[in-house]
Design brief:
Helix content: 25-40%
Strand content: 15-25%
Distance between the termini: 59 Å
Number of strands: 15
Radius of gyration: 44 Å
Oligomer: single chain
Number of domains: 3
Structural class: alpha+beta
Number of helices: 5
Largest sheet: 6 strands, mixed, barrel
């Protein structure tokens, strides 16, 4: 905290100044009323020396006051003066209290307006921005553009991120609606891509027994453990034509999101396990080739999802296991 901030914190506010002024005025009025009452009492008693003014009030002066007020009894004159002084003090106090309340209301309105302005200024905007970037360190993927949002998953250094928008506060929006900090990414692709350690995965027995992979001489089978850059697409339940949808695969299994994918069987044989770097679904990246399609040829991997509307075509390194 700077000295300027400290001095600003010690500076009294409007309410404190108003309360101080009000207290001072009330004290002055009280002292004035005390002198007035003492003056009346002195006159009523026939003349007394006033200590502060060093004056002497004679009985004749007291009688003059009686004649001017039209009251023959001095005690009645005293009562009238005291009553008038009390009314004046009461009126002054009410005026000061009213002004204090008006100032408090104005202060509250100003504070609320300031808070509204601050909220407006923190509005975050997004602009379309398409780019492939890579994590420079272990990177948190969050549900919103800020560290206050929940962590969806973590990326490893070198993982590719497909960007579709950029925010005004320094975050990238990914194709699946999550966010990563710009400060921990780069648009320079890593030179060395680590080969993943194969994970034992048991493929469904029907995948190997019901359909045999067909091979052609047009495309060579992907070598195990070697990275192949593939186009990643997505498909969902297929319409049968009678209003129903099918989730059966070409190998006779049932599609499962996070496990099933379609591929060109001449490149990735049916029933084989593949690893997709930086899994687009946020999983561990391991899939089983259980399906194929007329448009899935060459280096294309078509991932099954329950709802394909939330995903866009992207590109990833794929490893045959």
């Amino acid at each position: 905290m700077s000295i300027k901030d400290l001095m600003r914190g010690l500076r009294p506010g409007k309410e404190a100044i108003l309360k101080g002024v009000t207290t001072g005025v009330v004290l002055v009025l009280c002292v004035a009323s005390s002198f007035a009452v003492l003056h009346v009492v002195n006159k009523a008693q026939g003349g007394t020396v006033l200590a502060d003014a060093d004056e002497f009030v004679s009985p004749s002066e007291s009688e003059t006051v009686t004649e001017e007020t039209g009251v023959s009894d001095p005690s009645q004159t005293e009562d009238i003066l005291v009553s008038e002084i009390s009314e004046a003090i009461s009126a002054s106090t009410e005026t000061l209290v009213s002004e204090s309340e008006d100032t408090s209301e104005t202060t509250e309105q100003t504070t609320m307006a300031s808070q509204t302005t601050t909220t407006t200024e923190t509005t975050i905007s997004e602009s379309e921005f398409y780019l492939a970037v890579y994590a420079t360190a272990v990177l948190n993927v969050r549900s919103g553009p800020g560290t206050d949002y929940d962590i969806v998953k973590q990326l490893n250094p070198g993982d590719q991120i497909d960007v579709i928008a950029i925010t005004s506060n320094g975050w990238y929006k990914t194709y699946n609606g999550n966010y990563v900090s710009i400060d921990h990414t780069t648009d320079v692709a890593p030179t060395n891509t680590p080969v993943p350690t194969p994970r034992p995965t048991s493929a469904p027995t029907s995948a190997r027994s019901t359909t045999r992979a067909t091979t052609t001489t047009a495309t060579a089978v992907a070598p195990s453990g070697e990275a192949i850059s593939c186009r990643i697409t997505f498909y969902g339940p297929q319409s049968v034509g009678d209003g129903t949808y099918s989730t059966s695969t070409a190998t006779g299994t049932t599609c499962v999101q996070g496990r099933t994918c379609a591929a060109d069987w001449s490149v990735f044989p049916a029933g084989s396990t593949i690893y997709i770097e930086n899994d687009p679904l946020g999983g561990d990246g391991y899939y089983i080739v259980e399906d194929r399609g007329s448009a899935v040829k060459g280096h294309i991997i078509d991932i099954y999802v329950d709802d394909e509307s939330g995903y866009n075509t992207t590109r990833r390194n794929v490893y045959a296991q």
